[in-house]
Amino acid sequence: MKKYLGNKAMILALIAPTMILICVMVLYPLVILFTKSFTEWDGLNPSTFKGMDNYIRLFKDPIFYTGLQNGIIFALVQTCIQIPVATLLAFAVKDSGRFEKKFFRITYYLPAVLSITVVAQLWLSMYNAEYGLINKIFELMGLEYRQNWLGDGDSGIVAIAIVNTWQFTGYQFILLLSAANSIPEHYFEAAQIDGCSKFKAHLRITLPLMQESYKYCLIIAITGGLNAFATMNIMTGGGPGTSTYTLTYLMYRSAFKVGNYGYGCASAIMLVVQCLIVSIIINKAVARERIIY
Amino acid sequence: MKKILAFLLAAVMLLSLAACGSEPAEEETPAPAESEAPSGEEPSGEEPSGEGEHEPVTLRVYVRYSDDDTILPYDYAVECLAEDMPWVTLELDPMPADDGVKLKSMVATGDMPDIFAVGSVDILDSMIEAGAVQDLTEEVTANGFVEKVLPAAYSKFYDEDGKIYTLPYTGTEVGLLFVNKTIFEENSVEIPRTIEEWIAAAETFSAAGITTLPIFGKEQWICNALYDALVTRYIPDGLSSLHDGSHSIREEGYLKAAQDLEALAAAGAFPDGVTTLNYEQATNLWYNGQAAMFLNGQWEIPTTEQYLGDAADWIPIPAASEEEYETSQHAFIGGTGTPAGLSVCTWSENYDVAIDVACYLAEKYAEYNYTQRGSTTIAVRCDKPMEVEQSAMNAKLSEAIQEATSTTVMAGSGTNTELYTVLGEGTQSLLAGVMTAEDFIESIALVTGD
Question: Which residue of B has its CA nearest to A151?
Answer without folding.
Answer: B273
